[in-house]
Amino acid sequence: MRLKIAVLAGDGIGPEVTHQATNILRAVAELGGHEFTFVEGLIGGIAITETGSPLPTATLDAALECDAVLLGAVGDNKFNALPPDKRPEAGLLQIRQALGGFANLRPSIAYTALSESSPLRPEVTKDVDILFVRELLGGLYFGAPRWWDRESNEAINTMRYTRDEIVRVARVAFELASKRRQKVTSVDKANVLEVSQLWRATVTEVSKDYPSVTLEHQLVDSMAMHIMNIPRNFDVVLTENLFGDILSDEAGVITGSLGMLPSATIGGAVNLYEPVHGSAPDIAGTGKANPLGAILTAAMILRHSANLEQDARAVELAVNKVLDAGYRTADIARGQQPGQTPVSTEEMGKLVHQALAESI
Ligand code: NAD
Ligand code: IPM
Ligand code: MN
């Protein structure tokens, strides 16, 4: 199996966790006799500093020629005063749009070994396995008009969706649910927003093609509560761009840390893989970053871009083994036995590598 992967490490902890994820991919290639090649590119704050642009043309061209793109994280406090289109985050939105993937899959799983890492009680998180399907190319992120008039002190963003944009992401959610526990929860704000009324009507229409899958609708505000109260009730959660951004971070609490969450964006010319977390400037450079979200993202590359389901599972199993053995980075160290100290980003990466080598 040959795979060419663009690695856009970005800012803050992005390069730290991405390095561990590519190490794991290298190990999978070696153990399985695959040929994975890695092409590095600049994105985000580091790209602004070095080239003046958050997404240099060279990066986008290289990404479009690869089979998959692995992105670390973008964002640096030193650019906070810039308008949205000049910030590191603009590079991320531009590459998402250019690659064309519209369905962002964000699994949120409660690992048994981490039941003490979550502030939620173990009986609440037990067996939780939610898959968020977040629409990634529409809504407030991309709707026009958008502006801030500093004279009149007025600003506007536009939440816009077309029926076709909703249909295509809804189909992804129903297809995935039909291979899981047969349930889609669609999240909107249909009691207030016309866009959400279109969303709800369209998702209901798509659901007719999937009679074995149960569809329920939830309003986003109460959904934010249900996810914490009864997370076990949810299988596939389908929602628009901003609601999905917020709810998937919230669901990090179920797993124990945002640093544990992977993601894959499918449906475009090239799939884009990114851990859910950001550049975490508060811990960048300290060796505290949890690389497991990025490593589990690497597993999603194996699954969705290389069709190497067994290898994807082997990586996930290796992560489970390391957690079962009691190893924790600082963010998931709650509930660790007295006397045990958290491991660093690099140590965690090495532990997963060892566990993988033993299991493949
Ligand atoms: P963040 O996700 O960077 O961090 C939130 C909190 O979670 C912090 O306390 C951080 O230390 C912790 N955390 C995150 N990832 C972790 C990991 N792997 N291990 C351990 N702890 C981890 O969110 P933020 O602080 O709101 O944003 C910081 C910057 O990141 C901003 O510029 C934002 O725009 C950007 N951002 C980028 C992406 C992306 O590139 N995909 C995603 C989210 C935020
Ligand atoms: C994410 C991030 C991005 C988003 C930002 C950095 C543009 O929060 O990937 O979840 O809002 O989509
Ligand atoms: Mn986010």
The helix content is 40-55%
Mean pLDDT reading: 97
Number of H/I helices: 12
What's the CATH architecture name of the largest domain? 3-Layer(aba) Sandwich
Molecular shape: globular
The small-molecule ligands in this entry are: nicotinamide-adenine-dinucleotide, 3-isopropylmalic acid, manganese (II) ion
Q: In CATH terms, what is the fold-level topology of the largest domain? A: Isopropylmalate Dehydrogenase
Radius of gyration: 20 Å
Distance between the termini: 16 Å
Percent of residues in beta strands?
A: 15-25%
Name the helix and strand elements from N-terminus to C-terminus, one letter apiece.
Answer: EHEHHEHEHEEEHEHEHEHEEHHH
Please give the order of strands in the largest beta sheet: 2-1-3-12-11-4-5-10-8-9
The named CATH superfamily of the largest domain? Isopropylmalate Dehydrogenase
Highest-level CATH class of the largest domain: Alpha Beta
Describe this structure in words.
With 360 residues, the protein is an alpha/beta fold. It folds into two domains: 1-104 and 257-360, Isopropylmalate Dehydrogenase, CATH 3.40.718; 118-255, Isopropylmalate Dehydrogenase (3-Layer(aba) Sandwich). Helices cover 41% and strands 19% of the residues. Helix 7 links the parallel strand 8 (183-188) and strand 9. It is globular and about 55 Å long. The chain starts with a strand and ends with a helix. The chain binds nicotinamide-adenine-dinucleotide, 3-isopropylmalic acid (IPM) and manganese (II) ion (MN). The site of 3-isopropylmalic acid has 6 residues, from helix 4.
